[in-house]
Amino acid sequence: MARLQILELPEGSGDERPPFVLVIDQYIPQHYVLGPNSELPRDEFADFAEKIGARAVLAFEETIDIPANDVPLDENGQPLSLKVRIEGDFERLRDQVQEEIEYAQGRITRTLNETRAQQTEDGDSLRIEGRDLPGKVVSRAAELTEIARDMDRLAKWKNNLTDALGTDRTRNWDDIRNAAAELRRKHDAQAEELERLRAGEEPGWNALVESTPGQWIGRWNQASAKERLSMAGQILDGMKRANDCFMADHEAQIARLKAESSGSAEA
Predict the structure, then answer these.
(1) What is the pTM of this model?
(2) How confident is the model at residue 84 (pLDDT cuts 50, 70, 90)?
(3) Minimal CB count within 10 Å: which of 2, 172, 178, 210?
(4) Are 111 and 137 a contacting pair, CB within 8 Å?
(5) 3-state secondary structure labels for all residues of 89-134
(6) Is residue 61 part of a domain?
(7) Tens digit of pLDDT for each residue in 141-172?
(8) How far is it, in rounded angstroms, from Cα 104 to Cα 139?
(9) Burial of 41 by CB count in 10 Å (0-12 exposed, 13-18 middle, 19+ buried)?
């Protein structure tokens, strides 16, 4: 498939723009006839250079590589790209805006002090010594003042945000965004864990009434750490007593005593 390339030529003193040559490689020659009565074929690039402002059009069947047009490629054969990240220096920008405001305000003050100004009929410009001075100075000062206020508000918001996140105020916006994302991730994880722990809870726990397992879980989750330790101690103590009772076969002994007591009463 034919390729189009530009070969720049040295610029002369009389050139209005840099001269160049249009280079076409991998080209398959084609000709066309002007009309039914014409016998000589016409080159399809005839007069083409003049139309595009080139010094000449060079067509080659072979592949022609122009070093100046080479594009560096990566390991995958793709053109290399340059990524540039620009981080705003808000402190420096605010200083620059403040300097512009002071300059504009000083210019207004000097103009009003050194000349006799009167407002024109349209109310949009000043007439100084017979010539109109557009009100761009005033509007520019007002615009810069508003920008400075916005920058102050932005700086305060950034400080408040970094304080709330517990990060350094000198961090850039990428660090602040990452800190906020991490905080959100932890919040979601804690909410999920809390939902898991409270699964199965039932309301209506009453210390004077035998509770259901769901009511007991609800009471456990609402108890303080001290209360949970006390409840856990009671549960472990009850489990130990139940185990001792089972190992000593207390139930069988109680049944035998009841039977002996019943036989004595009948006699």
Answers:
(1) 0.33
(2) very low
(3) 210
(4) yes
(5) CHHHHHHHHHHHHHHHHHHHHHHHHHCCEEECCCCCEEEECCEEEE
(6) yes
(7) 677 778 878 888 888 888 888 888 888 877 78
(8) 10
(9) exposed
| 47 and 104 together in one domain | no
Residue 40 resides in a domain: yes
Nearest by Cα to 53 from 27, 25, 17 = 17
| AA letter at 78 | Q
**Same-domain check for residues 97 and 170:** yes
Same structural domain for residues 29 and 64?
yes
Q: What is the Cα Rg of the chain in Å?
A: 45
| Alpha carbon distances (Å) from 230 to 103, 225, 234, 240 | 74, 9, 6, 15
Domain count, the chain: 3
At residue 118, the pLDDT reads 47
CB atoms within 10 A of CB 208: 4
pLDDT digits (tens, 9 = 90+) for 224-256: 989 989 988 998 998 998 888 888 888 888 888
Query: How many Å apart are CA 180 and CA 163, to the nearest integer?
Result: 12
Beta-carbon contacts of residue 57 (< 8 Å; ≥ 6 apart): 21, 22, 24, 45, 48, 49
Q: Which of 20, 37, 69 is the last residue of a domain?
A: 69
Phi-psi category of residue 26: left, alpha or beta, with phi > 0 → left and psi -120 to 50 → alpha: left
Structure token digits, residue 125 = 């410009």
Question: Are 97 and 167 in the same domain?
Answer: yes
Give the domain extent around 116. Answer: 90-174
pLDDT tens digit sequence for 117-134: 444 444 444 454 444 445
Please check whether residues 63 and 99 belong to one and the same domain: no
Same domain? For 45 and 119 the reply is no
Residue 220 covered by a domain: yes
